From TrEMBL:
It comes from Saccharopolyspora phatthalungensis. It comes from the Bacteria. InterPro entries: Kinase-like_dom_sf. This is Aminoglycoside phosphotransferase.
């Protein structure tokens, strides 16, 4: 996690680099959501609002800026447009169209769920172009959480997946759900995004059956091999148990309990 810096505390050289792309900045304010970028601010400019997000150029997580920039042209219409990016004066910064919205609600009965299903349906058809990129494939991300590292290959694919479906990453604005924060964009099978999402639904009050039914509204999840989903559930249990052990918090404890419940429900169809 990175400490969020207030706009007034940034060096003048950084502000000059940003204003060279936006025009004069009238005001700026740090946002409260999110924890991974020291620069995350809404900027008031003469041409409207811009959301700027950045990390020091030598930060160990600076690759996430590259992932967001690489994902941006693929997700026009479901994510804010990338307006500029640069790496200068010791900072790597992405500037996005500002979407004035609120975080999604995942509780049972929320109308936002239908909007997220629609959003995920569009996303499921997006492929990552062949060739090198700043991606960390899902089989690499998940290989330490499966019993046999070779099992992680069943998640591998070329679909662009978001993987981090916390409500704060979904903005609801004028009847549409917008997906933000592509730091963990990952090549994978498209059914894995609904699978990541259903854990978030369970953590906010849905039963396993309810969450599974919502995920199954996405065709990719509906036809996914049940054994593969069981392996994925087991891997998520191991991942969240590790997070809860190493970085304990009420949120991590809830997610770990949720992942254990889902994995247990899927044990009967596992290959193990």
């Amino acid at each position: 996690m990175a400490k969020r810096i207030q706009w007034a505390d940034f060096p003048g050289s950084l502000i000059e680099s940003i204003s060279a792309r936006t025009g004069p900045i009238i005001a700026g304010r740090a946002v409260t959501d999110g924890q991974n970028s020291p620069l995350a601010a809404v900027l008031e400019t003469r041409n409207g609002r811009v959301f700027a997000k950045g990390l020091p150029s030598d930060h160990r997580m600076v690759i996430t800026q590259a992932r967001e920039a690489a994902a941006a042209p693929l997700v026009k219409g479901i994510s804010p447009e990338l307006l500029f990016w640069f790496d200068e004066n010791g900072w790597k910064v992405n500037g996005f169209e500002h979407i004035d919205g609120r975080s999604a609600h995942y509780q049972p009965g929320s109308p936002d769920i239908d909007l997220v299903v629609d959003l995920m349906g569009v996303l499921s058809a997006i492929e990552i172009p062949a060739g090198p990129g700043p991606w960390k494939p899902i089989e690499t991300r998940m290989r330490t959480y499966v019993d046999d590292p070779a099992d992680a290959k069943i998640f591998a694919g070329s679909a662009l997946t978001h993987t981090d479906w916390v409500p704060d990453n979904i903005l609801i604005s004028q009847g549409q759900a917008w997906l933000i924060d592509w730091a963990w964009a990952t090549p994978a099978q498209s059914w894995t995004d609904p699978a990541f999402w259903l854990l978030r639904l369970m953590a906010r009050g849905h039963s396993i059956a309810q969450a599974e039914a919502i995920a199954a509204r996405l065709p990719a999840y509906a036809v996914a091999d049940p054994e593969h989903v069981a392996v994925f559930a087991h891997a998520n249990m191991n991942m969240w148990n590790e997070i809860d052990r190493d970085h304990p918090s009420p949120w991590a404890t809830t997610m770990a309990a949720t992942a254990r419940a889902w994995s247990e429900s899927r044990r009967g169809v596992s290959r193990r």
